Amino acid sequence: MTDQDPDGHPTIGYGHLCSSASCAEIPYSIPLSRADGDRLIQSDLAVARKCIASQVRVKLNANQFGALVSWAFNVGCGASGSSTLVKRLNANETPNTVASEELPRWNRGSNGVLPGLTRRRAAEVVLFKTGSSGGGGIPAC
């Protein structure tokens, strides 16, 4: 069983965006078992981690990295890579300022502002600005 995102695109599991209405490209039977849903989100997050790791050239702590992975999972690798957010980080602007100013801008669907995305971006800003004892660099996953 699939759902639709606010723009009417088919999704399954923990927010996987399907390329077809039936999500036929998913290598698991539908409805997804919890284990298959977990495998699918891990696969999707691996893609988002790789995107952020290749696009952001400044040192991030684990929480900053995690917030950006959450955002990239939601907006896609192409959008994150061409974003002002990534450009500003790579220009060595103050990371907390960049996150506070840029993440909230990503709260719209095709029909305008989405309250769920507004809440998600606010949570990502909080996570980004939360200190991490995990040193710098890309955290092991």
UniProtKB/TrEMBL annotation:
Coiled coil: none
Keyword DNA-binding appears in the UniProt entry: no
InterPro entries: Bacteriophage_GH24, Endolysin_autolysin, Glyco_hydro_24, Lysozyme-like_dom_sf, Lysozyme_dom_sf
A Pfam cross-reference name: Phage_lysozyme
Stretch forming the signal peptide: none
Protein name: Lysozyme-like domain-containing protein
Taxonomic source organism: Amylocarpus encephaloides
Keyword list, A-Z: Antimicrobial, Bacteriolytic enzyme, Host cytoplasm
GO biological process: cell wall macromolecule catabolic process; defense response to bacterium; killing of cells of another organism; peptidoglycan catabolic process
SUPFAM superfamilies, per the entry: Lysozyme-like
Taxonomic classification: Eukaryota, Fungi, Dikarya, Ascomycota, Pezizomycotina
A single MF term (Gene Ontology): lysozyme activity
